[in-house]
Amino acid sequence: MQAYWLSLLLSAGAAVVGMWWCLRCISQARHLLDTPTSKIRSAAQGYVEFYGVITARPDDAMVGPLTGKPCVWWRFRIEEHVQEDNKRSWRSLESGVSDALLALSDGTGECLINPKGAQVRTTTREVWSGNQRHPRLPRKNGMLGFLSIGKHYRYTEERLQVGQPLYAIGDFRSSGGGRQGLDLAAQQGAVIREWKSDFSGLLQRFDSDNNGQLDEQEWSRVRLAAQLEAEDRHRLESLRPVQHHMAKPREAQPFVLSTTGEDELARGYYWQAAGGAALCLVGALSLAWQLGLQH
Q1: pLDDT per position as a tens digit, 104-154
Q2: CB 99 within 8 Å of CB 74
């Protein structure tokens, strides 16, 4: 009886997970297809998509950790070939992903992209095997080299490189260039909170009677000074050149960086949705069959 209930639970779980995955993939595909392509210079603030080319940044000096090839973003995995119970498989040993900012240009402007949390799809992918855990280490010689024979490792490295086309969809924000309006009350409050974090310094500036407290008149002076400081900061921010940034959206919208276009990405999501629908169908049929056996 215990095995029967476990089987029912697994079938119901497969149906639910398959349905959830199907709906999620369809939703992500629709986000990609329904969001119009924008130009960086004129893009509205919020959720947008861009097509452009990856450009070099002045401080870029990045290389792939396994190949040593120049790039602006990388992801790697090192696996070991193991045998357990007469079964051979690959066991993951190490993995990692870079988080440096990327630069995307579309001819109208440049946008810096924070890739943290993004689904990154790149056509530059290398997979190879070797006898050392880290392929860039010098090869072992003598007896140690002999002992390393038979230890097999598989390396995978993916990269984004300067000059590659890039499709990007995510949360877009601009700063500087006089683009941002001044919310005086919010900025004033932020300045006051900043000053209050160093309360002794605040007292030194505004406690005119040196009693260790700020009375109502002294707080009025604090608020006035904070207002003037907020206005000065906004004025200086407006003089800075405009900068565009893209990052992961706060809401459950897809954040995707890809060297292929949205049509191919959407097609992939639809295939995943079909797989989820198939899993849901198999789970539902198995559940119905098992329940039918009890009647």
Answers
A1: 999 899 999 999 999 999 999 999 988 888 887 544 444 444 444 455 899
A2: no
pTM: 0.66
Q: Tens of pLDDT along 64-104? A: 999 999 999 999 999 998 877 778 888 899 999 999 999 99
Instruction: Give domain limits for the chain.
Output: 2-176+243-293, 181-240
Main-chain phi, psi angles of 138, to 5 degrees: -60, 145
Locate 119 and state its tokens: 């689904």
How far, in Å, CA of 7 to CA of 12, rounded? Answer: 9
Closest CA to 131 of 153, 100, 162: 153
Residues forming a β-bridge with 62? none
**Which residue(s) pair with 156 in the sheet?**
77, 127
β-strand 119-121 against 256-258: which pairing, if any? Answer: parallel
Residue 231 backbone dihedrals phi, psi, to 5 degrees:
-65, -40
Quote the pLDDT of residue 147. 43
Greatest C-alpha distance within the chain: 88
| Integer Cα distance of 104 and 38 in angstroms | 13
Which residues neighbour 93 within 8 Å (Cβ) at sequence distance 6 or greater?
Answer: 78, 79, 80, 133, 153
What's the Cα-to-Cα distance from 131 to each of 115, 137, 240, rounded to whole Å? 32, 11, 53
Radius of gyration of the chain (CA): 28
Amino acid making up residue 66: L
> Confidence class of residue 177 from pLDDT cuts 50, 70 and 90?
low
